[in-house]
Amino acid sequence: MTETLNDILQIAERWRAEGRAIALATVVETWGSAPRPAGAHLVIDADGRFEGSVSGGCVEGAVVAEAAEVIETGVSRVLEFGVADETAWRVGLSCGGRIRVFVEPVS
Fold it and tell me: Where does the XdhC- CoxI domain lie (predicted)?
């Protein structure tokens, strides 16, 4: 099941109330046959726990790793994944698409 934005925001609100440091990842652009549409979300805590999906499992691990630094530094970043970039052999979209994901700290 893919969570809606409302579901993700409720989870984020609950985690913040529990005192967890969190980040929100949002698909902001897709090309080709990316598995999740623009607007798909993932909420991540500082311990690497997450809910939601930005790629159906293709790049969530890489997004979670980057989110840890975003949480630590408080600096947002844009991540890009796909079969035509230097990360293709580490992480990639099996469907051949590309996605751009904005990761921001939530305070």
Answer: 15-82
Tell me the pTM: 0.84
Residues 21, 47: Cα–Cα separation, whole Å: 9
CB 8 within 8 A of CB 27: no
Q: Residue 60 in contact with residue 54, Cβ under 8 Å?
A: yes
Q: How far apart are CA 55 and CA 82, in angstroms?
A: 11
User: Over the chain (107 residues), what is each successive 10-residue block's mean pLDDT?
Assistant: 80 96 95 82 95 86 95 96 59 66 94
Nearest to 45 by CA among 18, 6, 85: 18
